[in-house]
Amino acid sequence: MDPDPARPPDRVRIYEVGPRDGLQNESATVPTDTKLRYIELLVAAGLREIEVTSFVSPTAIPQLADADSLVPRLPRAHGVRYPVLVPNMRGMERAEAAGANALAVFTAATDAFTEHNIGMTVAASLEAFAPVLRRAADLGWWTRGYVSTAFGCPYTGAVEPARAVDVALRLVDLGVDEVCFGDTIGVGVPRQVATLTGAAAAAGIAPNRTAFHFHDTRGTALANVAAGLDAGVRCFDASAGGTGGCPYAPGAAGNLATEDLVYFLDASGYDHGVDLEGVLTAARYVADSLGKPLATKVGRSGGWDSATGQPVGRA
HSE-up of 221 (CA within 13 Å, CB side)? Predict the structure, then answer.
């Protein structure tokens, strides 16, 4: 469950996905020590939920083949949670042996996407998750369930909110603590965010058990965050440096950048506990490690000190 039940209503959780979702599609191998330094910088910036890796088959995602050696070496800091992606019981056994204590399972709103992405239907994926989530419950782990393609599928087009909510309800029935709706190919707009949040709430999934994972493919990610905030959602995924994205949207922008989200939340008056300059340090580190320029909005411009009019954290 939420690590702080007394969390005030304007406290936002920033769920960092850079080390897992941000790196998994990179073709050049990122050394384990580089990943660990990246994670250390994210922790130093104040991030307290960092999805660090995935216990899928190493042949499926070679970039995350070091999951078994990375998790035992994670920096241990008070209040920091390191969820890992777990697809099946074999992955669960590996995660448990490595010392993980929080996990996420991953399905989608359409069979077409899950069949291309993980080689099974939505129903089959839920069946595979059932023993994983039972074991996690026995161990007292925190759990999350992803519903990808919640707004649109690259194979079947628009997705009705009822379809995404139906899959989310089945994840809740399996025992997940939180459901995260993903705009996998970045087609959602604010009106749809409000509609989906309302439909989930009407079905019994309260906004405080709902998270969103927005991609900035078409420049709507922060507008969608604003709509989610207005609807009562207080958890949003982001990736330092804006790394990652969907392989089914070639040339598209990646995840919502953590630095852009932090700036937006700061300027909007939301408490979140994350330091912008610290995030920019992490974002520049990972960009340099990947041999790429930091191309995010706040990464280029820095933040802004309203008292002096000067930029903050600009390189």
Answer: 33
One-letter amino acid at 85 equals: L
pLDDT of residue 312: 85
Task: Work out whether the CA dihedral 124, 208, 258, 101 comes out positive or negative.
Answer: negative
Residue 80 has, within 13 A of its CA and on its CB side, a CA count of 20
* Contacts of residue 36, Cβ cutoff 8 Å, sequence gap at least 6: 70, 73, 74, 75
Looking at residue 279, the DSSP 8-state letter turns out to be: H
Give the model's pLDDT for residue 10. Answer: 81
| Cβ neighbours of 227 (radius 10 Å) | 22
- Report the 10 Å Cβ neighbour count for 158: 10
Confirm if 186 and 253 have CB atoms less than 8 A apart.
Answer: yes
Within the chain, which residues score under 50 in pLDDT?
Answer: 1-4, 251
pLDDT of residue 1: 44
* Domain annotation for the chain: domains and CATH numbers: 13-312 (3.20.20.70)
What is the model's pTM? 0.95
pLDDT of residue 306: 87
Q: Report helix, strand or coil for 301.
A: helix
Q: What local confidence, expressed as pLDDT, does residue 3 receive?
A: 42
What the block records as the tokens of 269 is: 């008056």
Distance of alpha carbon 17 from alpha carbon 23, whole angstroms: 9
3-state secondary structure of 11: strand
Burial class (CB in 10 A: 0-12, 13-18, 19+), 157: exposed
Catalytic residue annotation? 246
What residues contact residue 228 under an 8 Å CB cut-off, 6+ apart? 193, 197, 212, 236
For position 315, what pLDDT does the model report?
Answer: 74
pLDDT confidence of residue 148: 96
